[in-house]
Amino acid sequence: MSTYTYKRSQELFERACSVIPCGIPGHMSPAVNVPPASYPIYAAKAKGACFWDVDGNEFIDYMCAYGPMILGYGNEVVDDAARLQYALADTTMCPSPKMVELAEFLVDLVEGMEWAFFAKNGADVTNYAVMVARCATGREKVVGIKGGYHGSSAWMQGLAHHGVTPADASNVLRIPWNDVGAFEDLVAEHSHNIAAFIATPNHVATFYDNELPEEGYWTKIEAICRREGIVLILDDIRHGFRLNMKGSHVHYGFTPDLICFCKALANGYPISSLMGTDALKNAASRVFHTGSYWYQAAPMAAALACLKELKRLDAPQWMQAQGEKLFSQMGELASSHGYTLKVTGEPVMANVRLADDPSFMLHQIWCGECTRRGAFIASHHNLFISMAHDEAILEKTLAICDEAFAALKGYQERGEVVC
Ligand SMILES: Cc1ncc(COP(=O)(O)O)c(C=O)c1O
Asked: So what's the architecture of 76-312 in CATH?
């Protein structure tokens, strides 16, 4: 199996650096995956579980575009629904009836939620959720988890980041994941000034293993929120419709007040949603939050088609099973080469890490060697399984991983990596 080169990607990136800050700002920056030289920079086309870069290299995508792709790239059912709506109307002077249809569908689908609001990105709805919680409670503080990510807004980023002021960060308090006692301590310290608790269903921090909720964690958090009148916000932007079609709270057995959805909602079409309980509908009506493209009808049509298809296919169960199969066989392969692969989190969106070297060097080289052979495996992020990751794709992936482990051994034998 020959390894890929990225000449055209690199040429494009050089051009980009003179006209776009950082060339590619944010989470798709080439600085994110290490070693950068092993990863493509620009994509040319995509279909099913794969995308092709501008150099013509084909990749099985284990990032699913950071989560939006769930049915496979270019899914006909979703694309037909979007095309039909684009041909009728998309951004017009009034919203489309699709907005009502989608809200009704979501209210019917997602357990415990009685209304839906639509925007574009995840941060649009985490921002809105926090505003709704503040409006409903008349309080300022928000409690989040250390390392938890809810979008790039200034309140979320924290003071260590450029462009963030102390005022932006002053109302956000962070506690460790799975630490109910730390939440009780904050409640005692900031009595009656905590508006909301926000967290993802399980903990997925970049550079760290994923962590599942301990037995009883969510029900204890929920009980404190109820006792103290704190709004419980579930950020289901990354996990939503991957663990359970009724919402990830059903998977873990608790009841939030507000749920943020985005990524898998429409298989890549731009749409996000905040859903909530009746008790918060009045506050949600009072908060002003909107955007030029938030009423686009085609992504709403795409979301309806995508959700119906995911439900019809019992997608979460199928994807979990594919993830279990893939990662257990990947672990066996690692052992056969003398390595230890640590797999954490839920199989449908697991984090994998070579545990033989705490410096991450071996892990990064192996991820890069997989990618240079056609299985795009990010070095420091959870991976995603989609409905397009079928048996043939898993088989091809495992053959690539096998070669990548052998290549990694070669680096060590030649003394090119010392850990
Ligand atoms: C859990 C979670 N919340 C919020 C966001 C922010 O979403 P967006 O980048 O669409 O604003 C992300 C994005 O990765 C996320 O993973």
From this structure: 3-Layer(aba) Sandwich (3.40)
What does the block give as tokens for 124?
């649009």
Confirm whether pTM is higher than 0.85.
Answer: yes
Which of 65, 55, 45, 51 has the alpha carbon at shortest distance from 12? 55
Ligand 1 binding pocket mutation candidate from 66, 198, 263, 381 (most atoms within 8 A of CB): 263
Q: Is the pLDDT of residue 418 over 80?
A: no
Quick check: CB of 238 below 6 Å from ligand 1?
Answer: yes
149 lines ligand 1 (CB under 6 A): yes
Q: Are 157 and 125 in contact (CB under 8 A)?
A: no
- The finding on whether 178 has its CB within 6 A of some atom of ligand 1 is no
Could you tell me the two tokens for 7? 């000449």
pLDDT band for position 158 (cuts 50, 70, 90): confident
pLDDT (tens digit per residue) in 52-95 = 999 999 999 999 999 999 999 999 999 999 999 999 999 999 99
- The DSSP secondary-structure symbol of 239 reads T
- Measured CA to CA, the distance from residue 176 to residue 183 in angstroms comes to 9
- What are 186-197's pLDDT values in tens digits? 999 997 999 999
Q: Which pair of structure tokens corresponds to residue 389?
A: 């990751």
| 3-state SS class at 152 | coil
Is the Cβ–Cβ distance between 145 and 203 less than 8 Å?
A: yes
* Most ligand 1 atoms within 8 A of CB, residue of 27, 128, 208, 237 to mutate: 237
CA distance 18 to 264: 33
One-character DSSP codes across 77-129: HHHHHHHHHHHH-SS-SS--HHHHHHHHHHHHHSTT--EEEEESSHHHHHHHH
Computed over its alpha carbons, how large is the radius of gyration of the chain? Answer: 22
Helix, strand, coil distribution of the chain in percent, nearest 5:
45, 15, 40
For residue 176, the Cα-to-chain-centroid distance in whole angstroms is: 20
Report how far ligand 1's centroid is from the alpha carbon of 293 (Å): 18
Atom of ligand 1 nearest to the CA of 236: 1
Compute CA 150 distance to the chain's CA centroid, rounded to the nearest angstrom: 10
Token look-up 């084909």 returns: 58
Domain with CATH 3.40.640.10 in the chain: 76-312
Of 213, 273, 281, give the one whose Cα is nearest residue 249.
213
